[in-house]
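Course exercise 7: structure representation. Students receive a sequence record and must write out the corresponding structure in C-alpha cell form. The form below is the worked example handed out in class, using TBC25 protein (207 residues). Read each field label carefully; the graders check that inputs and outputs are placed in the correct fields and that the protein name is recorded exactly as given.

STUDENT ID: A-19
EXERCISE PROTEIN: TBC25 protein
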Amino acid sequence: VAAAEPLPERRSLLAAALPFTQALLAQVGRTLARAQAALAWPEGSPPSPPPPPPPCAPLSDADLRTYLGPGGRLLRPHDLRLHVYHGGVEPGLRKVGPPGSPRPPCPGSARAGEYAALKALLAARAAPAELALVGAAVRKDVVRTDRGHPYFGGPEDGHPHLAALQALLTTFALGHPRLSYCQGMSDVAAPLLAVLDDEAQAFLCFC
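STUDENT ANSWER:
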C-alpha cells in the first residue's frame, strides 16, 4: 500500500479487504507450519545431505581382476564404475580396454596400415586450397597444445608428437568435410595421443 494518504473512495475498499488479507496470510502461515512439521525440517534450514562415501584407492590391476569372471568378462559393472568414480584409475591401467569387450578384428599393425592408407588417400583427393586451409586451422591449435606436458614439450620444429597431432586432426577434418575441424578438437585429441602414444589408435578413439 502506498505511503500516501488513500483517496476517500479507496479507503472503504482497503478497509473491506483488510480482514480477507489477514485471513489469507494466516492460512498461508498455518499451511507452511504444517508442511515444515511434516518434513521435520528445523526452522529455516533444509535437511542435511547424506555424508559422501569415503574415498578409495585408485583402481589397480589386482582390483580390476576382482570385478572379472571367467574369460575376463565383467561381472559387476556398477561396482567397478563406482570404484573408478571415487578413486580414479592407476596410470598404467588407462590404456586397458573395457573388460569383456570383443577383440578388434585385426591387430594393431593392420589398423596402423589402414590409417596410413586412409591418410594418404584423403590428402591426395583434397584440393590444394582445401588442404592448406584445413592444415592452417589445425596448426593454430596444435602449436598451442600444453607445452608444459613432457609428451608435447621441446622445440616446435620437427616435434614428432605435434606432427602426429597435426596429421590426426587434418585426416579427421578431410574425412568429415561437413564437420571439418572445430577449435578445441585438439584439446580432445591431445590427451588421447599422449596416453595411447599411437597416432592410428588415437585417431580411432577420436573418431
